[in-house]
Structure to design on (200 residues):
């Protein structure tokens, strides 16, 4: 479609761009595009400039891979946080739901994915070396990967690496639906999963 006849039609182009977003089908993209057509220019500008701002200003923390505008990020830099525990998550957006539970005050480490033989993602594609380099002074590593096949495989792989280092390695006690995502788990359930985490 790109460069084709439709790209000359601004509305079709917007629908095309929106439908590339995850979870947005053509129907929703069309509805959003028509909505944007109706809103004041200032509202459309606020949306487009906020998209560009996250692209221009945000990056991954050089220590934990969280999304940040300063390096190190606010979690790594906060002297109030418990520096004896690291909570390992798959994606940067998994941190916010864990923070909202109020059950955790330690550090984070974002793997930037999960093991997936089907998609050709092995340990080398994940931020595992940088996790192993952060273990000095750490007592507990909480494996908060998603409760699906890939997240479980990743947790088991990491547990095998971490246990011989003499660390306490724990996994969330999922009362969460198996096959689910941390991102879609309500904070009460996630908070209970954290509080009841079990040792691997
Ligand atoms: Zn950080």
């Amino acid at each position: 479609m790109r460069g084709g006849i439709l790209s000359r039609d601004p509305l079709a182009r917007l629908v095309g761009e929106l439908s590339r977003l995850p979870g947005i089908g053509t129907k929703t993209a069309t509805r959003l595009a028509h909505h944007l057509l109706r809103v004041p220019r200032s509202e459309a500008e606020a949306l487009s400039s906020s998209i560009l701002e996250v692209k221009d200003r945000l990056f991954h923390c050089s220590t934990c891979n969280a999304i940040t505008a300063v390096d190190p990020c606010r979690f790594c830099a906060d002297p109030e946080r418990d520096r004896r525990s690291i909570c390992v998550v798959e994606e940067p957006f998994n941190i916010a739901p864990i923070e909202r539970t109020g059950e955790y005050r330690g550090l984070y480490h974002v793997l930037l994915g999960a093991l997936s033989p089907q998609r050709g993602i092995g340990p080398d594609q994940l931020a595992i070396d940088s996790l192993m380099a952060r273990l000095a002074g750490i007592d507990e590593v909480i494996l908060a990967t998603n409760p699906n096949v890939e997240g479980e495989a990743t947790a088991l792989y990491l547990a095998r690496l971490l246990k011989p280092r003499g660390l306490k390695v724990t996994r969330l006690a999922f009362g969460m639906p198996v096959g689910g995502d941390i991102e879609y788990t309500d904070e009460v359930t996630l908070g209970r999963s954290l509080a009841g985490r079990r040792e691997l």
Notes: The radius of gyration is 20 Å. The mean pLDDT is 91.
